[in-house]
């Protein structure tokens, strides 16, 4: 029996009556229930199969504090590199977990697009966010995601109303700043794309400076019938940061979800993407790139459930591991017996740049139906020495030749990003 | 006359196997030499070594390029010093466009020569004529290096790179294999266009046909890791008729 109190138990006791929605009975109950589930499971340990390669001990040993809400003076120019410089792009900027109004911009939104802080939305229109917050995931959350559900203080709320088409992306930036003690932030974001609507989101996590901090994020995404969403996730926190993130996507019939996920930052990071194809003709297209250099550890887990017939999932993830970097990729695809005519393809390619870098990659197919087409493939390789020689034989320096080849490897993922201004912005933030 | 390349008693092992067993070869500036010889005799080993490919052990001998010791130099240093190898098997590089590849290479060379780097637009106009003269379609420049190129397109692409880089010593390993008859003529005139009194060319070939169009000053026969016979352009004709059998044991 575990006799030690769970981390953050004292925070719960101290803060439960001051969290957003504390006056709303159903919200109080949701938080209470999440806290109980968190107490029951705690933080995962390496004894669990899904956590074999990723130990969260450093996070628990460190002890992170809840940031005090404050009006931190930030120069907008600090954000230049972190935001796509387009005045017409609506954005929400959160600083140490708190919405910064001066840095945000939600003027001139087209009719049918709603963007707000989740805490504000909950206070003003509880009935709008209630179904989203209440939605129970089809599979259990990790303990830390429950901790987020219990203790979140803010995050973004984005809604694309029925049949709305939003031609430009909405940017969500979660920024951590140095503070006197290392802080934990737990952004909780809800994205709702109603029937027939179409939207684009850029969700990014960054740090100003080299400080260590802990982000425990949860993003839930709902796509109703025929909805479409392009979602770009960029995690580029400092190399001292700890980053745990859960993304939950529920797709109804004929919806289409496109996700591109980039994980470059963090000392220790884990990204889980849980996606449920819950209605016929729903499809998802997921790709991404994770990079671990120095002593970074990055773990990427995807879980796709084909809960309806005639659904399609495609995944293509790439990893670049340098220095003593360590990567983990696990792609789970589940098709229950009753489901017919589904297609699923999964590819994971990894590039090891040193012999001290490591990757553990594993497809995890749980296919109980016969009427499905599933493919998967994983590769691990080094830079092609013959290609390297070819480049050098034309006068390109060894370093530049390596960089070109690494870029070419990443290019397959980066080149799919639209529009060009977003791709250029992301390429600039990549170190190679 | 200046000596471009001087190879003396060169012995090279690959995976503990003797491949080159005492190669001697001297090329003067402005000369065109051809090396012929049976499969597996060591021709590609020799030219790859000249370009700096790793993995070979030089057990004896010496290579001087314009009087300097070549062997300690890195491949990129050799390229910048003016050596170019057209590969027997050009390498496919997914994800890097041909144009980016060559612009990067040209700018590396220009930096070395203290010239201003070339922008993408200037590069395109600079190279458009060259590509055209080789019958390379514009689209091939934007495609990933050699990926999905036909055999002949790959060879013409090698020559295209050579035209851009304007080397002083051009080494072409079987630039003529896989080319159709018209392409052979195009490639030959491309090579001839580069013939100057300052530039030397070393061609490895199996066919006398190329040597009709690019007339060499010397023809060498390599067998079993040695140059066993050297002659004029007529030697190529003789080899075409008689094959290599009659040379067995020569040069021992
Ligand atoms: N990468 C390699 N691995 C193993 N053996 C090799 C390799 N490269 C060359 N060799 C061996 O070295 C010898 C010489 O090969 P090389 O390619 O130099 O011949 P070549 O004269 O160019 O032949 P060809 O006319 O067929 O191109 C051959 O026996 C070949 O098998
Ligand atoms: Mg050869």
Rounded mean pLDDT of chain B is: 94
The rounded Rg of chain A comes to 21 Å
Q: Which ligands appear in the coordinates?
A: adenosine-5'-triphosphate, magnesium ion
**Total of domains of chain B:** 1
The third-level CATH topology of chain B is Rossmann fold
User: Structural class of the helices, strands and pairings of chain B?
Assistant: alpha/beta
The general outline of chain A is globular
Individual helix count of chain A:
9
Largest sheet of chain A: 10 strands, mixed
Q: What percent of the residues of chain B sit in helical stretches (DSSP H or I)?
A: 25-40%
Percent of residues in beta strands of chain A = 35-45%
Spatially, the strands of the biggest sheet of chain A line up as 2-1-5-8-10-12-14-16-18-20
Provide structural commentary.
The complex is a heterodimer of chains A (432) and B (252). By secondary structure, chain A is an alpha/beta fold. Chain A folds into 2 domains: 7-277, no CATH class; 385-432, no CATH class. In chain A, 21% of the residues lie in helices and 37% in strands. In chain A, strand 1 and strand 2 (98-99) form a beta hairpin. In chain A, helix 4 (118-124) crosses helix 5 (126-134) and helix 7 crosses helix 8. The longest helix of chain A is centred in the N-terminal third of the chain and has 17 residues, at 25-41. The mean pLDDT of chain A is 93. Chain B is of the alpha/beta class. Chain B has one domain: P-loop containing nucleotide triphosphate hydrolases (Rossmann fold, 3-Layer(aba) Sandwich), CATH 3.40.50. In chain B, 37% of the residues lie in helices and 29% in strands. Chain B contains 9 helices and 12 strands. A 6-stranded mixed sheet of chain B has the order 6-9-10-3-11-12, with helices on both faces. In chain B, strand 1 (3-14) and strand 2 form a beta hairpin. In chain B, helix 6 runs parallel beside helix 7 (181-193). The radius of gyration of chain B is 18 Å and the shape is globular. The two termini of chain B are 31 Å apart. At the A-B interface, helix 7 and helix 8 of A face helix 2, strand 7, helix 3 and strand 8 of B. The complex binds adenosine-5'-triphosphate and magnesium ion. Magnesium ion (MG) is lined by residues 43-44, 88, 173 of chain B.
């Amino acid at each position: 029996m575990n006799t030690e109190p769970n981390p953050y138990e004292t925070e719960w006791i101290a803060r439960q009556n001051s969290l957003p929605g504390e006056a709303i009975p159903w919200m109080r109950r949701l938080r209470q229930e999440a806290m109980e589930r968190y107490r029951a499971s705690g933080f995962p340990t390496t004894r669990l199969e899904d956590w074999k390669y990723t130990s969260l001990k450093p996070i628990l040993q460190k002890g992170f504090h809840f940031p005090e809400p404050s009006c931190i003076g930030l120069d907008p120019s600090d954000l230049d590199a972190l935001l796509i410089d387009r005045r017409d792009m609506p954005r929400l900027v959160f600083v140490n977990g708190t919405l910064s109004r001066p840095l945000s911009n939600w003027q001139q939104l087209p009719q049918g697009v709603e963007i707000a802080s989740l805490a504000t939305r909950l206070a003003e229109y509880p009935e709008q966010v209630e179904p989203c917050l209440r939605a129970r995931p089809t599979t259990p959350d990790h303990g830390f995601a429950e901790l987020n559900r219990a203790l979140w203080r803010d995050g973004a709320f984005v809604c694309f109303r029925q049949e709305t088409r939003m031609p430009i992306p909405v940017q969500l930036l979660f920024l951590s700043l140095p503070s006197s003690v290392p802080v934990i932030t737990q952004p909780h974001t809800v994205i709702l794309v109603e029937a027939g609507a179409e939207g684009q989101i850029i969700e990014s996590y960054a740090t100003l400076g080299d400080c260590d901090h802990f982000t425990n994020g949860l993003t839930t995404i709902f796509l109703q019938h025929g909805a479409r969403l392009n979602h770009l996730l960029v995690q580029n926190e400092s190399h001292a940061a700890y980053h745990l993130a859960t993304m939950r996507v529920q797709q109804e019939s004929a919806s289409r979800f496109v996700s591109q996920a980039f994980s470059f930052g963090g000392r220790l990071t884990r990204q889980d993407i849980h996606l449920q194809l819950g209605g016929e003709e729903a499809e998802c297209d997921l790709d991404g790139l994770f990079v671990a250099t120095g002593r970074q550890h990055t773990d990427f887990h995807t879980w796709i459930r084909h809960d309806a017939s005639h659904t399609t999932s495609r995944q293509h993830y790439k990893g670049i591991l340098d220095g003593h970097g360590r990567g983990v990729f696990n792609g789970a695809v589940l098709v229950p017996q009753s489901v017919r005519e589904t297609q699923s393809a999964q590819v994971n390619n990894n590039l090891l740049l040193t012999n001290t870098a490591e990757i553990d990659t594993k497809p995890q197919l749980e296919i109980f139906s016969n009427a499905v087409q599933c493919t998967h493939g994983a590769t691990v390789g080094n830079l092609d020495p013959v290609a390297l020689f070819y480049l050098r034989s034309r006068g390109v320096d060894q370093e530049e030749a390596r960089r070109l080849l690494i870029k070419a490897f990443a290019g397959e993922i980066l080149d799919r990003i639209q529009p060009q201004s977003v791709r250029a912005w992301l390429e600039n933030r990549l170190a190679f | 006359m200046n000596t471009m390349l001087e190879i003396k008693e060169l012995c090279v092992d690959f995976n503990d196997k003797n491949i080159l067993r005492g190669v001697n070869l001297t090329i003067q500036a402005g000369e065109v030499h051809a090396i012929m010889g049976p499969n597996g005799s060591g021709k590609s080993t020799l030219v790859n070594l000249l370009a700096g490919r790793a993995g070979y052990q030089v057990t004896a001998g010496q290579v001087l390029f314009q009087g300097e010791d070549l062997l300690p130099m890195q491949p990129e240093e050799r390229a910048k010093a003016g050596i170019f190898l057209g590969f027997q098997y050009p390498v496919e590089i997914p994800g890097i466009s041909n144009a980016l590849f060559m612009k990067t290479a040209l700018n590396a060379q220009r930096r070395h020569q203290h010239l201003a780097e070339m922008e993408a637009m200037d590069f395109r106009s600079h190279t458009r004529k060259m590509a055209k003269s080789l019958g390379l379609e514009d689209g091939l420049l934007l495609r990933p290096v050699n990926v999905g190129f036909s055999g002949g397109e790959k060879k013409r692409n090698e020559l295209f790179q050579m035209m851009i880089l304007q080397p002083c010593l051009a080494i072409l390993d079987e630039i003529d294999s896989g080319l159709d008859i018209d392409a052979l003529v195009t490639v030959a005139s491309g090579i001839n266009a580069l013939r100057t009194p300052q530039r030397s060319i070393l061609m490895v070939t199996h066919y006398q046909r190329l040597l009709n169009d690019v007339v060499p000053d010397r023809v060498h026969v390599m067998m079993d890791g040695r140059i066993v016979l050297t002659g004029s352009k007529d030697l190529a004709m003789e080899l075409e008729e008689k094959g290599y059998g009659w040379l067995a044991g020569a040069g021992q």
